[in-house]
Amino acid sequence: MFAPLAVFGNWSNGINFVFAFVIGIGFGFALESGGFGNSRKLAWQFYFKDLTVFKVMFTAIITAMAGIIFLDAFGWLDVNSMLINPTYLWSGIAGGVIMGFGFAIGGYCPGTSFAGLATLKVDAVFYLAGIFLGMFVFGEIAPSIDAFYSGKYSGFMGTVTIYEYLGVSAGVVGFVVVLIALGGFFGAEWVEKKYGEIVE
């Protein structure tokens, strides 16, 4: 059920849940310590005043991507054995737009809203209420929009990776993404210096 820790031992689901709980507490602590439980800090990125979220998330993406590429290259990890969710292009884009608006308006993403809730932030309570209301509404209307979110109008592409789609190696895509990240980091620093004055 959980990986990669679970694959190293034949322990029960109960032990897996203990690992998940401990890791989750650690992750939540890291979010709160980094200020990601504060909706203002998260929203400031949309005003180009504090791009910490952008830089942290891009760093996480680069680290995970590089780790997978190198582990696969040395034969320590079989990428083909990893679960890759299928791509639904149009419904995925629509979901991203809705998520982006929610993030910009509410100042939280789902994960950081729970970090805010853990520290008893009132705005996080309302944000989570909105999440659960949205889940309920989607559950009610899902059958009527099935053709768009998972049917013939969803842009279903199957299980595909960028390097397979482009017909190049994973290393080439990884190198390009690293260059994009470096450009993004330098750009973020420039933007923060230009627009970064924060008035509380």
SSE order and pairing:
Layout: H1 13-33, H2 39-43, H3 52-73, E1 87-88, H4 89-106, H5 110-118, H6 122-141, H7 146-149, E2 156-158, H8 162-166, H9 170-195
Helix pairs in contact: 1-5, 3-9, 5-6
Characterize the structure shown.
The structure is a single chain. By secondary structure, the chain is an all-alpha fold. The protein has 2 domains: 1-33; 37-195, no CATH class. It is 65% helix and 2% strand. The protein has a two-stranded antiparallel sheet with strand order 1-2. Helix 1 crosses helix 5 (110-118) and helix 5 crosses helix 6 (122-141).
* Assembly category: single chain
Largest sheet composition:
2 strands, antiparallel
Contiguous runs where pLDDT drops below 50 for at least 5 residues: none
% residues in beta strands: under 5%
**Gyration radius, in Å:** 20 Å
User: How many alpha or pi helices?
Assistant: 9
Shape: globular
Distance between the termini: 44 Å
Helix and strand pattern: HHHEHHHHEHH
Domain count, please report it: 2
Counted beta strands: 2
Q: Structural class, please?
A: mainly alpha
Helicity range of the residues?
55-70%
Order of neighbouring strands in the sheet with most strands = 1-2
Mean pLDDT across residues: 87
